[in-house]
Amino acid sequence: MQKLCRECNIRKPHEDFQNKGYTSAGNIKRSSVCKKCSSVLNRRFNLLYGVGGQKQCSKCAHYLDWDCFRKRKEKGKTYLNSSCKDCNKIVWDKWVENNKEHYQKIKKQGQNLLHHEHKKYERRGITKKEYEIVFSAQNGVCAICKKPSKDNQSLAMDHNHKTNEFRGLLCKECNRALGLFGDNIDVLTNAVTYLKERGSYG
Description:
single chain, Wheat Germ Agglutinin (Isolectin 2), domain 1, His-Me finger endonuclease fold
């Protein structure tokens, strides 16, 4: 499995990212920045904010760990926000309280955009661009039945259930069929033999 580093924008193995604990479901949480980029960031932050690993918040004036500040990008380089996450949350919560309807609208739009542009591809270890390359190579049809997906749905990203390796794009029906057959070549071969002997309409 691979993950996209938010700093260098390169997909790297999960082992290249720091373990940051576990989710409520028991899955490993990993840093958004790879170990190599993290090392570069730490050196830059030491120069900017001092070697103590802390920074003063511009709002509450407390000296806090770097993790207490959100990161921002400027001219291709990463810096820490001037105010800490807690202070920003107070301001944000007040804005949400005064703009509830608008907040719900932009929240839903953001979630949809994140899912369609990034998350649904990352789960299969590829990017949207890589999906489009494979889609073009397959001429926009399922790799098995050679038909386009029904009802304008996107083709499913098929993967090896043991290694999680991305294999290709399939229509929902073929993807489901492989799962029902357990990806078992012997069983699928028996099915082909059965149809040849007993009759088929394909």
